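#structure-requests
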Amino acid sequence: MIVRTLALALGAVLPLAALAGNVTEGGSCSQANTYLTPGSYQLNTDCDPKTYCNGSGVCAKKRCRKDEFPFGYSDTEFKDLPRMCPSGQFCPDEEDECQSLLSVGSACQLNRDDECEPAPDTSLSTPDNHKGSICLNYQCMWQNVTVGQACVVENIPYIGYSTEGEFINIVSRGNCRKGLYCDATEKVCIATRDFGASCSADKECTSFNCLENLTCGVSTDAPRKLAVWVYVVVAIAIIGGMLLTVGTLFMIHRKERDEIRQQREQYWREQAALRQNILQMRETAQASLLSLPYNGQNQSGSGYNSPSRHSSMASGKDLGVASDDSHAGFVTNAGYAGGKGGSGLRNSLKSEDGQEATETMSMDALVTERENGTSGRRRKGGLSIGGKR
């Protein structure tokens, strides 16, 4: 059946495109040159695909079409195509004008079952005929002959094409009912054969598919039935593919999460180290401030025991200390390292004469400056110490 379909398709298209006439509308033509192309049985005339040769020997414009998209109208808009014939009429091969359907016994054109009137019994309608009617040997008839009765058969040889070249494909049709075929030798209707039976032609098989080993095969359009194990294997493959995909995505995302977690851990370790360094700097600064000598005193003496020491007050702004709490080395009035109370240090000192002195120092106002090579130098106006004796 596949071979038949290929032969019909190629035979219907290739010869028509190669042998179509080239006389345009209004040109001269001869009906004697109108014939069916051998092998494909396409109508060939002197006129081009858009015209037909009328009785006056002139190529006239076609006034109907058989196909929804006719050959030769690639440059024409759909609305400008020749009209399709309405129900109860047909367009002949010449496509000159729509005509009424033909009654049983009337002459018809080759393979034009649609030119014949439908059979009154709708059960006769099959894909192989036109509503129960069939055109055999150029004559309209109904496809209603039963088993054992005399029948009419028509064998048409078509030229098929393959990679090995041309071959002949014979299409045999008869007027037997569905499920029967017309034997070309006995000319009687015989029941078609089931799968596996011997055959010599497609028409002898119920599936209309006679294999190369001359046995009836399954229909070419029949769905293929697979074994249960095929479904099992496919299901396992699908589930396995899904699991593999999910597992792969999980591993990729876990790796990304691990990288992000490591980055966060490294960030918090750096922050913790920075905080520890800041605390150590505060402790170092506190210790340094407590050991500072008084301004103008001999550094070799005991600065804190000197009775003539002077006090000065230094603000963080004057000493170059930022006022932002997040960057300052010392925090004013906020306590130290989470402790309570003010940030000032209150120290009890004794002078050389044994009298006790108290001194209040603001931690955020006491910052030492690099001596730049000179001992005892301080930022001008940067330190003020108030003591009582």
